[in-house]
Every structure is written in C-alpha cells, then in structure tokens.
C-alpha cells in the first residue's frame, strides 16, 4: 500500500504488512485527533521584522540545511532536490486558490517565488523487534512507528518570506473544513486543517495538523510548521507510518525543526 500522500514524503511499507495491521487494528481511531483538537489554537509567534532581509544564496542555504551530523537518530537524505520526491509549485493544485498554500505545505513544495530552495528528508530510526516477537501486532506497529519529515528551505527577496507566512495563516483560517488537491497528477483530500500552537525560535511561525484521506477511506494526521527566520522560510512536514495504519495521533518532531532553525542563526 502506497498512498499519494505517503509517496510524497517517501514513506513505504509492504502491502501485506499494512493489510495485516489494518485488519488487526480495526481501522482508524479518532482518539489522538480529539486530543489534538482540544489544544488547537490559531497561534502565530512574534510579529514580522520591520525590514525585509536579503535573500540567501543556494550555497548559503546548503550550508544552513539539515545534515547527518546534526541528528543523533535516523538518516538525513540530502539528495531530494531533483529527485522523484521533489515536488514543485507548478505540480500542485487545490480546489480553491485560498487553499493553495496548505496544498504546497502538504506536498513539500515552496510557496511564492523563492530566490533559492533546498530540501531535506529525515527518517527516524525504526525499532527492531526481537525474532520471537517479529510477527506480533505490537512488534509490527513498533517497527512502523517512525516519522518521515520533509524540510523545505526557501529564501526570498523583497519581503516574500513575510508574505508566505501571511498567506499560510490566511489559508489555515479559510480552509479549516478541508479541500482537495492534485499533486503531480494524483488527487488527494484533506478533510480538515486546524491551527496548533506555533513553536518558538523563529521570527514568526504557523503550525497545523491536517487530516488526510489515505487510500480513499482511512484518515491519517499530517503535521507541519511554516516558520520564518529573516528572509528564509522553513517548512517542516511530518508523517508517521503507524499513524497511516491506525489513524492515531503522533508527536511532531520538534527536535528537527529546532535544529534547522538553529542553523539559520
């Protein structure tokens, strides 16, 4: 089983494993979603800077982007740009222009007209079950309880970074009831999009949880933060493969976002 949304962030699992787990778990659960909704608030951190900063060069973005040496768990893929996972703005459509910023966040594509972009993907290290437990439901779910995180850095001239944050926040308010998307010719559906508490450490930031339809029927959470540091926007989107099976909530990988923001100074 390999849904459109899962493909975009490089998640993959065998059809047999997912089918077995889906049957064992009895489908999706709303428990985690309810917990998230209780804390959801449309929160944006500090106000925009008084003057637009100069855009960084591609080389400067590369130096500031997440690297393997920056993490103590999992693997950082630095070869995203130009690969099959590199979705561009012109490959993404939403059923309304107002929702386009969220569709771009969900697909890992940069918004607006950036002067330069760099992408990374981090895959959390999976828990390896013992030989004795290898085929149990708990062991299989534990092995799938890993996060795939897509990091898009985009730098802008003339206040473009500030505009991205404004457009994202506006889209989150207008498209809370959901929308449909088409990415690289494949259709997808977001059933709802809710704002969550924005993180610290950026000039301004918008955080969200989108509920996605996987394989046409099951729902799964997708979490993202769009943050600005000077002229650069960091968009971090996260999915969890076990959540794709169970529909349950998962923790956003704040350590990846914090590390990336820290490298931008």
Overall average pLDDT:
82
Q: Which strand order spans the largest sheet, edge to edge or round the barrel?
A: 1-3-4-9-8-7-6-5-2
User: What is the approximate shape?
Assistant: globular
Provide the succession of SSEs: HHHHEEHEHEHEEEEEHH
Strand content: 25-35%
Please report the total strand number as a whole number: 9
Radius of gyration: 18 Å
Model regions low in confidence, pLDDT < 50 over at least 5 residues: 1-50
Organism: Streptomyces bluensis
Biased composition (Low complexity): 42-52
Protein name: Lipoprotein
Signal peptide: 1-24
Describe the SSE topology.
Layout: H1 4-8, H2 15-25, H3 31-39, H4 58-64, E1 75-77, E2 92-94, H5 100-107, E3 116-123, H6 137-144, E4 147-155, H7 160-174, E5 179-183, E6 186-196, E7 204-214, E8 218-229, E9 232-240, H8 241-246, H9 254-263
Antiparallel strand pairs: 1-3, 2-5, 3-4, 4-9, 5-6, 6-7, 7-8, 8-9
Q: Can you put this structure into words, describing what you see?
A:
It contains nine helices and nine strands. A nine-stranded antiparallel β-sheet has the order 1-3-4-9-8-7-6-5-2, sandwiched between helices.
Summarize the structure.
This protein is of the alpha+beta class and 265 residues long. It contains 9 helices and 9 strands.
